[in-house]
Inverse folding.
């Protein structure tokens, strides 16, 4: 971890039978204690269907209690479908312990 920084990844992956997924991730860490991250992800299960793509927008926070071995993670993701809007947004809080 760095005292302050950010990094961006852009990746596109997929296979004809699993669809295509593309995402953009950003993160920034302060004083090796708190990490803020964001992600935009698009998923298109079939290139043959024009109206089945969904996009997810995620904002998350990690609080490092004892480095990467003991941390609390929280995030919220909003989904937007191409045609029919579903109530499938989600929030997750996790405690991670590694030994």
């Amino acid at each position: 971890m760095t005292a302050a920084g950010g990094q961006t990844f852009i990746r596109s992956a997929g296979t004809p039978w699993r669809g295509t997924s593309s995402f953009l991730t950003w993160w920034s860490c302060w004083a090796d204690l708190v990490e803020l991250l964001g992600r935009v992800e698009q998923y298109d299960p079939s290139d043959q269907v024009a109206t089945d793509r969904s996009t997810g927008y995620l904002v998350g926070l990690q609080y490092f209690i004892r480095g990467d071995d003991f941390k609390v993670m929280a995030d919220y993701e909003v989904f937007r479908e191409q045609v029919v809007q579903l109530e499938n947004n989600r929030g997750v809080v996790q405690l991670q312990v590694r030994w």
